[in-house]
Amino acid sequence: MRPLQLSKVLDGVNSTKWVFWIQGGGFCGSQAECQSRNGTNLGSSTPQPATKSGSHVFSADPAINPDFYTWNHVAIPYCSGDLHSGTQTTRSSATWDLFFSGSNILKAVTKELEGLRGLNVATEIIWGGGSAGATGSWLNIDWVLERYSSARIVGLPNAGFFTDEPVYPGSSAANPEQFRVITSQIWNSHVPPACRSVFAAENISYCMIGDFGPKFVNSNNFWVNAVPDTNLMGAQLGFPGFPTNLSVAIPWITALYDDRITKLQANIFSRPTWGWWVTSSFDHGIAEDALCNANGLSWLQTFGNWYFNRPGPKRVFDECGSAQLASIINSGAVSNVASCNATRYCVPLGLTKPPVVAQAPASTSAPSGSVPMLSYAPSMAGNTPVAMTAPSSNMRSSGSTLEVSAVVLLAALLLTSVLTNIL
């Protein structure tokens, strides 16, 4: 196992400021998948590098990351295969003779850094991640907020807003029962405590998707996401990609687009202290690039405006509207929308409007039973058994965009966490 590699910034002003970035990589949802991934860079400490250079908010280059390049940077690899949510520490035949301790690993890494590098006196912590790491970020951030209560804690999930949507016509991509069982029985997933108190124990999977989970998060977050997220569409919902039969694709994409905007409004845009950079591009895990911008701003620039409360847009949403999105697809310009260039987003194509931000905090109560948000609306009684159903499509264990992670021991991942040296 590779030893823990640590270093600390020399800038005394920023020595108590930290950026954490949690690695993505899907999840493994079956015994064969998880065991086949042991020994890979998502399932073993052996392939992990001794040091790691980063990009965007994790970069040490002031030209790329002028606001945070002098902070302590911590990269946490992903070896648990459980969306960084697991608290399963008992290995048995029921868990395929594997440990699923992703949430425990995140906590162990931070506790280790307290003694080794003074994280216990942190004044500011950015708790971010990409894709599966973004999900792990918002699922666990309230624990960080509680443990480091004297510090400013901010979440930065990039591509972690997975929602339950209908699968692509003719696809059998979703396996709802698999996800329900592994989250509650195999991973014993950590979710926001207020959400766990609302849903029956066997249905904590509802707390792990954007339809419900974020409204139970207390910490401030800045969300980076594409509305038509390509991993959600492809790996999770079975969309075959372009070119395809547009008479089938356009109605499905536009319905998904409209539904996800509704869920963003209910779970993200309704939080008056949160920030976001949400695009109408076909994308997943949005990178920092001069041409990857909405309303003329990259997500990193917008995040800096929001974090430091400086002049300039702090919440950016380039909503095309589903009709315009359909027009773009029909015109054959979807290749431009899908690639990182000047016509990638809808802003250069016309309509731009910011969402309306509510003035009251979002409710943390259960969704109203009289207005079903999903076709599989669960029981809201915390201890009431419900039907054997689960989010039908938001997560799947394999796909072309997200890698699929394997599982290793808690100690193994702790020893592979990497702190980038920033001088």
The number of helical runs is: 11
Estimated share of beta-strand residues: 5-15%
Q: First CA to last CA: what distance?
A: 27 Å
Largest sheet: 8 strands, mixed
Q: Got a strand count?
A: 8
Mean pLDDT: 75
Helix percentage range: 25-40%
Q: Low-confidence parts lasting 5 or more residues at pLDDT below 50?
A: 1-7, 335-423
Query: Which structural class do the helices and strands define?
Result: alpha/beta
Shape: globular
Strand order of the main beta sheet, please? 7-6-5-4-3-1-2-8
Oligomer: single chain
**What gyration radius follows from the Cα positions, in whole Å?**
20 Å
Order of helices and strands: EHEHEHEHHEHHEHEHHHE
Question: TL;DR of this structure?
Answer:
With 423 residues, this protein is an alpha/beta fold.
Task: List key phrases describing it.
alpha/beta, 8-stranded mixed sheet, disordered C terminus, 10% strand, 11 helices, 423 residues, disordered N terminus
